[in-house]
Amino acid sequence: MPPADPTSINREEATDIAGLAEGVRRGDKTMLGRAITRIESIRSDHRDEARILLARLLPYTGKSLRIGISGVPGVGKSTFIDRFGSLLTADGHRVAVLAVDPSSRVSGGSILGDKTRMEKLSSDPAAFIRPSPSAGSLGGVTRRTRETILLAEAAGYDVILVETVGVGQSETQVADMVDVFMVLMLAGAGDELQGIKKGILEIADLIAVNKADGENRPSAERARAEYEQALHYLHSADSIGSPPVLTCSAMNGDGLSDIRDAIRRLQQNMNESGDFEKRRRRQNLRWMWADIESELLAALKRDPSVAKRLPRLEKDVLDGCLHPSDAARSVLDMFGVKTTSE
Length: 342
Ligand code: GDP
Prior knowledge:
The protein has 14 helices and seven strands. By secondary structure, it is α/β, with parallel strands linked by helices. Strands 3-2-4-1-5-6-7 form a seven-stranded parallel beta sheet, with helices on both faces. Helix 1 (11-26) packs across helix 3 (44-57). The longest helix is centred in the last third of the chain and has 28 residues, at 275-302. The chain is globular and about 60 Å long. Mean pLDDT is 85; it is low at 105-113 and 134-139. Bound molecules: guanosine-5'-diphosphate.
């Protein structure tokens, strides 16, 4: 990231940012929290500060293992993260938990990242849990999460757990910013694969069937075998083979150390094959494009002439008296973008 122009902010703010950067480096959780709030802000002066902050901290980033954890609400993500995170801190890791929750944007409420959902981990000195930001503070869900990962790494967290709920694009977005993307599943009645999006199986690096306890155990084991078979079929042409499928109980801790070991093996294999580095580089390229897209869109929306005429155009499209592509063309035209006319 190119350093932002330091002259664009005043001396007091610069000291503030230097202090923040230092606090983050020290691993001070309050400072890390403040730094994250800064990067979540959509205020343009805060964006400038955030850029400087990230530029300062960039040399200390990139050294963690980034793990994405997905699954439908109720599958047991927070229970899993609470236990699994504690297992990792007991191993000597420092664990940061972040959440990608696009629904908070719509509903104004957050269904992820709530500290009370991870009781054990939230009182663990070696863990940092960042609740999802409230609506109105989002400057692009993926951008802020990617940057938050970097901040947490600079603060010394060597495992970053990024939690996401299977809503909209969030799964692919998270898969695109982590080294290992794991999906928690439930054993359902009947056909295990029914209703399961094939897409998520394609991007999963590891699948765990949760709630494999009590009378659920046999059905969880059956589901595991079925997923394994489906994945084997799906990845039959891949050189790396199909992703591991395991069972676990986030509630009583069964299977969690097997998951940790499977993740370690994945990491080791990726390191040896060079895929780890390749994957991160590819992600960086997509990050660049995502930034370009979101910045362009933000600039377009900020444009005074666009802002002035947009409500009317939107209304006309809604009312059906203007074709969407004609409306899009006039917006782009106002912004000085030449569209190709067929
Ligand atoms: P999330 O919405 O995916 O974060 O799911 P939660 O972690 O909040 O869990 C949803 C419910 O499932 C809670 O009542 C948990 O106690 C329960 N639960 C989570 N993991 C397990 C498990 O491994 N076994 C059983 N039996 N229940 C679980």
